[in-house]
Amino acid sequence: MSSLLYRLGLSSFHRPWIAISAWALVLGVLGAVIAVGGVQLTSNLSIDGTPSQDVLDTLADELPDAARGQGSFILTAEDGSSVAEPERVEVIMDVVESVYGTEHVVGSVEEAQQPFVEQLEALMSQAAALPAAEQAAYLAQIQQQADAQIQQQIDDYGFAPLIVDGLPIPQVLISEDKSAALFQFALDQQVQSMGSADIEKIIAAGEAYDGEAGLTVLPGESLKFALPALGAAEIVGVLIAAVVLVLVLGSFLAGALPLVTGIVSVGVGVGIAIASAAGEPINLMTPILAVMIGLAVGIDYSLFIVNRQRNLIRVQQLTAREATGRAVGSAGSSVVFAGLTVVVALVGLAAVGVSMLTAMALVAAGTVAVAVLVALTLLPAVLGLVGERVVSVKARATGATADQHHRIARGWSGFIVKRRWLVLLGTTVIIVLAALPATNMTLGMPTGGNSSPDSSARQSYDAVGDSFGAGFNGPLIAVAEAEAGSNFDEEQITEITTRISDADGVRLAQLIGTSDDNATVAFMVIPETGPGDERTAHLVDELRETAVDGSGDGATLGVTGLTAVMIDMTEKMAEVFPIYIAIIVILSMIILLFAFRSVLLPILATGGFVLSILATLGLTTLVFQDGWLGGLFNVEPGTPLVPVIPIIGTGILYGLAMDYQVFLSSSMRDHFLQGESPQQAIVNGFSATSRVVVAAAIIMASVFAGFIFSPETMIAQIGFTLAIGVLIDAFLVRMTLIPAAFAILGRATWWAPRWLQRILPDLDIEGHKLEQQPDGRMHSELSAQEPSR
């Protein structure tokens, strides 16, 4: 492998504009395709095969109207006074008309009022048929009955419809104290399946009246959506990475190269994902994950190669041309292997059978693959343009005598080797303590109630809960299906409605639709508790177990809605997580066995990763769920972990952990194969490589940490998980725990039976073949092509 990559590196170095033009062309084509097709992001997190998704599929076939999504706006008076005052009612109606005028919002005020208009016309006709002396009394009686019905609704539920010009507006509810109005409307599809641009238009239509007549207009929980745009925190993370690059590589010019190639990697990887969607909505987490992982590994992979090239120039006094070929052949081999582990770990997510995760993982894996290609082709091409300027004359002059083994690294590795048992036990105790909070980890979808108090999402959530009840933040849809060949009659439908209403935790249940053959019936269910409450999850389970009699033993009652979807997702992720951990362990063993031709090293490295992911989840739980240092990270205590966090974090962190393991272990093995004692090989190998691994870990953690302060809780949790996971695995596991274990095992670290060594291929990730033939034919053939500088 090293010889092949050596040739590739020299080819790109000699013909830089070919590689640069090729990548520029790829970026240009992707940009053009995206410009034509546009970008549509969606928050859809549904999982095929779950009970809630099955019910949604049934509704889409049998009752399309009931399968629609719902949106809402909450309107409150800034001074706590009544929203029913005439000028405020006028603003409320303006909001209603404006929202109904946007795309994807179904119906109109006139359509909703039509049954009441027809009823009123019938009553007026009846009144007109009476003697004149009796008409006034008759109409007064009708009005009294209407007032009594409204008062009964207020007494029963604490709200009533808004009355305008004698007619109710069914979509607008007024709280009992008239301090708030809740406007609910239907959409032509589920909210989580809609594109971000469409949701923004609906929100803008309502918020256009915010502040008029002293009313505050806030979108409801179901319209909560966040764009994955880069903010100041993300940019700061990249700037920190840039500073680290300059410090490690010793010059602004060298430090800029990995940053440029990292950005190109992200641009191409994310561009391919968006362009392949052909304008169709893609989950907003898909490009975010690709940006996170692509930028981090894109910078790090280029850093490893540039650092190796500069060391070869300074220490061995090679030309920039030869050093580039050697760096791509040796460090590039490790990059290929490290990238492969990340790709395999991400692609392995497809094995759990969740299409949403598969799509995210494949896009992220594709971006990592692009980062490897960029590091092996575009980077040496740019180095070809830079030439000898990559190392200053002063650095070249002093480099041959400089001690490349950092004093701190040598001291730390020497301490680990000398106090190996103490280091092993002490580090293990620290990691275990960090992992303990994970035993109380709660998975669930954060709601507006978990947002910061000054956010619009939290204010909307609280306003709805205070005025109408927390259940209005997460309505459920219950669907009764008759046995095949049967249907429900009116009496049975009434009985089902009663059973649902009587269920513990139900505040309101009403019929919202029946199929043409009455075989499928849908109900809107408002729980007494909010979408993130455990009692709501218990209610979902209870409703699904509710018996449906009178239409055959095969009749069932299913539950869906955004809250039920999140509950099912949590259960599904908890179910597949152990399976994925097993897949990761097996893959890790195989990959490291091929890389180092050792039996014990894969066991140690994999065991270390299991410890690091448990500690990572423990600290994530401590911060987000328990609220430890919550003020620093703008986190509200009690926030559950998004169900996809453990499995996505495991996949990405595994790949990154193996990156560091490959670079450190290959350096140690190289020194061991050169005849050094096992302990001395640990010290020298660690000292030679740890500086760049430390820089790579800091860079990755900085990039990931930039996403921690995102207003979207899911993005913040993923950013924190990856950032803290990289730091734990790099500093506690790869550079402390594992070297201590190596020191204890001694020569056994690198042992494998002879029969196994004969079977396993020699991948030469250390680049020994290049060092054995420094003047071989592979580069003498290309020497004539080297342009004069």
From TrEMBL:
Q: What is its main location?
A: membrane
Superkingdom per UniProt: Bacteria
> Membrane topology for this entry?
Multi-pass membrane protein
An example of a Gene Ontology cellular component annotation for this protein is: plasma membrane
Which residue windows are transmembrane per the record? 225-249, 256-278, 284-306, 327-353, 359-386, 421-439, 577-596, 603-624, 644-664, 685-709, 715-745
Record's Pfam families? MMPL
Compartment(s): Cell membrane
Record-annotated SSD domain positions: 224-385
Q: Which UniProt keywords apply?
A: Cell membrane, Membrane, Transmembrane, Transmembrane helix
The protein's name: MMPL family transporter
Organism, by scientific name, is Microcella pacifica
